Every structure is written in C-alpha cells, then in structure tokens.
Amino acid sequence: MSSLPRLFPASDATKGTEKMRIMAVFKRWEFILVLILAAICVFNSFASPYFLDLHNLFDSTQSFSEKAILVLSMALIIIIGDIDLSVASIIALCGTAVGWLATQGMTTPQLVVASVIVGTLAGMVNGGIIVRFQVPAIVVTIGTMSLFRGISYIILGDQAFSSFPDDFSDLGQGYLGGMIPYEFIVYLVLAVVFAVFLHRTTYGRSIFAMGNNPQAAMYSGIKVDTIRFWLFTVNGMMAGLAAVLFTSRIGATRPNMALGWELEVVATVVLGGVAITGGSGTMPGVILSVFVFGMLTFGLGLVNVPGIIMTIITGCMLIGAIATPIIVRKLSRP
Amino acid sequence: MRRLLQRRENQLAAIIILVVGLITLRAPVFLSMGSIDTIMTDGAILTMMALVQMLAILTRGIDLSVSANMALTGMVVALLSKDHPEMAVTATIVLALGLGLLLGAINGVMIAYVGIPPIVVTLGTMSIYRGLVFQVSGGAWVNAQQMGSAFIAFPTTRLLGLTAIVWIAAVMVAAIYLFLNHVRKGRELYALGGNPTAARYVGINNTHNQMLVYSLIGLVSGLCGYLWVARYAVAYTEIALGFELQTVAACVIGGVSMAGGRGTVLGCVLGSVFLVIIFNALPIINVSPFWQLAISGAVILAAVVLNSRSERSKGKLILKSAQLAAVRGTA
Fold it and tell me: What is the span of the domain harbouring residue A3?
C-alpha cells in the first residue's frame, strides 16, 4: 500500500520530510483497514482450512459484489454530505421490472439495459425531488424507499417471478476462465472508474468541495445542484445494475429482495473512512472496507456462524471503527 | 380563515377530516366505535414513538435503533413472562423501562460523550440490538399461550372505555407537550436544533441534552416494546422491523423539520394519526394491503414537498421577543 500517498497528492498529511511521510502512511485510515483485513484473513485461515483456496476466495466475492457496486456510488453521495436510503428499494423495483419483462420474452441483453434504465429513472426521481424542492436527501429517500419497494409489492404481492431466459443466469453465476466471477470483474472495472473520477477529475474535487461547504462551493462556480442530481441518478443506475446481477444470481424476484441493504451499504462506506458529515473519504478506503466486510462474512460463514450474528458484528465494527480514533485522540490530548 | 389555514397543523387536520370523510363515504363502518377504538389502540404506539423520535430530530439527530430497542426489550420481557407467568405487570413495566433506558443510554453516551454522529451510532446499535434479539431468543417465537395472562391483558385493559395503551399515550403526549413548551430543558432542545452555535454561546449544554434525549427515547422504546409484544401477543426476532422509518415519516408528515429546531407535538400526533388512518382504511375500502407501503411512500414525498414551501418562507427565530426585536431593528 506504499502507493497510497502518491495517489492523493492533495492530502496535507503526505507532505513534509521522508520520516513524516512514512508516519503519515501508518496514520492513514486505509492502513488500519489493511491491518484489519490481514487480521481477518489470518484468523479465517486458522479457523477453516477451506479459506485459503483461490476458488473459494473468488467464489466468495459473489456474495458481496452487488453491494460493493452500490458502495462506490453511495460513497460519492455521502462525500457531498447526503445519503440515499432508497437503493435497496430500487433493486426491488428493478428486479421486479426484470422479472416481468422476462415473462414478456425479452432477451438477456435487453433485460440488462432495461434494469439499468429503470434504476436510472428511479435515481432521477430522487435527485429531481431533492434538487427541485431543496429538501434533505434523507427524507426524500425514506419516502422513495417506501414508494419503490411499495410498487414492487403492488405488482408482485406475495408472488415471485422466476422464469428467465436460459443464458440469464450466466451473468450472476458465470465465471471468466472458470474461476473469476463476472460480477467481480464488473465491480473491479467500476471501482477503477469511480476512483479515477473522484481522485483524478475536477468533478471529483468539486464533490469534496461540496461536502466541505456547499455554499462556498456554489459561490466558487461549482454547479452544486447539477452534480447532486447526477450523483443520485448514477446511484440509481448502479442499483439497476446490481439488481440485474442479483436477480440473475438468485434466479428469482421477490418484493422483499435486498431488504436492509441500504444500511449495510452505508455502514461499509462509513467504515471505509468516509465522514458521514461529508467532505472527506477515499475510494481505496471504501474498496478495502468492502473486502473487510466480505472476508469477515465469508470467514464466519465457513465456521457456521448464523447470519444474524453477523449483524451484531457489523454493528460493533461500524461503531468501533468510528469511535476508536475519536477516543484515542481524546485520551492522547492532555 | 386564511391565517387559520396557513398553520401546518390545521392544514393537516383538514386533510385528515377530508380523508376520513371520503373513506366513510365508501365504507360507513369506518366511523363505527369499534373501528375508532382499533385505530386509537393501533395508533398509540406509533404516536408515542413518533413523539420521542421528534426529540431527536429537533436536535438535528435521528434514532434509527428505536424499533430494534423495542424488539429486544419486548423479547426479553416476553421470555421473562414465559418463565415467570405470575410476574406482576408493574414489575414487567419497570423492567421494560429500565432495559429500554439502558439501550438508549448506550446510544446517548456514544453520541453525546464520544461524539459520533447520531445516524452512525443508531445505525450500528440497530444491527446490534436486532442481532441480540436473536441471541436471547435463539430465533424462537414466544406466542400467546406461553406469556402470562396479566402480561397480555394489560395494554387492552379498559378504563372509562379507553384501553390502557391509549391512556399511556395520552399521558405521554401531555407530558412531552409540557416538557417542550414549558420546561427550560425542552426549550433548549429547540434552541440546539435551531442554531447549535448560538445555543452554545448562551450556555446550553449540548452534551447533557443529547444524553437526555437519547435516554428518553430508549425509555419510551422499552415501554412500547412491551406494549407491542403484549398487544399483538407474540414476540419474534423481526418484530417492528422498519418501524423506525414510520416514526420518522410521522414526524415529517407532521411538519417536523429534518434540519432541526422546528416541530410541534400537535403536528407530530396528527402525522401519526394520518398514517394510522391510512393503514387501517386500506382493508376497509378493499385495497390490498400490498398497497400500504407505496401509499405511505407517496404520502411522505407529498409531505416533504409541501413542507419545503412552508419552511423556506419562514425564518428560524425561536423566541417571540427576538422576532419582535428583529422586526423593530429593520424598521
């Protein structure tokens, strides 16, 4: 991870003498995440002989790739100081659309496009209301969270769509070279795109500026509302993409699909070092955070820990990760 | 007349009367005593929880862990009732209040003393408390036959024709009204939400107030956890799942500003009543319950859009005298 400081020349922590620079690496949140990830991997490999198997490891990425895709765009939204609680409901809406369209005889590529379009439109609804009426994103997305999943319930009730084209399951269940899941490749490509966008473009800088001080950002000529609108739209688009992958992986559409994901996604973003109040965070941080959660879940699954216990650990990790640096700082101050 | 309609609470009350009228036209049974009784009993828990949620929102916070707290407290008292069916109701209530308070105080310490944003803390404790419900129950259900008879009977015990749960809610509405409007601490919450910096300069202690708010939310959540479990005579891991968002929704519909510092007890109560009426009316007018979620979403969005107008037109001055002074100053 020695390349991290060079990736972010703008960070003050990386300036100064060589020694300070090395110290800064250790103080970085990403470094702590790498340590946590390493500890989890060591623990897992002792706990189960099946952990350090390349096939198993690649296979395990499938269980978190869809969430990981959402984490990328959610990170941008949290960096501008907003939040989107409707992503999981957009997945349910898109999944329902995909399921219905499949019964109407659409082919797999058409289904992918349709899901992404529905997701994008849902994101536009969020962004449109937030920007047009200047209301907090949290209330709007609490509303659309009920609305989007509600539409899915109206269409499906307690039914499910489970007939899809024959090659549809390849999306979420297929492997490149018999080893690397397609979903994981999609995630990696998107991760690079988002990292470059956030850390290497003026739009990325604008996003940080908006998170730190929206008013100052507006006065310095940043099109605050336009960026906000498009970030919510992109978030919807990612949810649409995640929806079609998820539907393909589990092979069925139910209105309660992806229930509660929005909070897991937010927790991952926050553990990745993005301030919930906005203005700071890095893509490598949230990408590492995805792996921390993913490997933890995988390892606990290998030793047969029930899923609901996972939620306790997730909650403790979220609070612990945020509280520890604050407590250390308070104690070290005289 | 116009000024009367400008108040958000009056608008909401008018809309509620209109909605009730329309529902009654289609199904006169909606205005029967039995139906009203059900609505009040169903609405009592939402009203109480929305009121305490409002305390958090007033101080620019939010508590997402309320429903998990309710589920955990409800499960613990249900398990106790299963093992000791003869346990007195007062003991149950004290236990529920105590456990709820403890869970709320944990949030409070994290938020007020450690300084983690409320949404992060309560997001975390939401998962932790919900997971603990599974831990203590082993994933099993506690059903009506296993609970003590007094335990189940209490919430629907009648006094002067109303159920105990309604009386508790009524007392709580009155208490929180007095607290927010006539107690110094209550006014401080508005000040903190309206302008935290100014509040600090006039000597209002944010730490103590946040601790108070989240402990209070926990206390009420614990009580409501017991009432919920006893009212529906069943306890399981997913009890009240997603209920935290309904409490926020009731606040938003009632005109409580998510930006903090604005919101009234009356508005909050009307917001809860509105949601409960909508939910209870759907089966009566033959709409599938599957419409419930989408309708509540649409209602929240409508309320948000309407609120955005009224919020922009007004300032955020809290004291009447300050407002007067400001007017004189500009004149």
Answer: 1-43
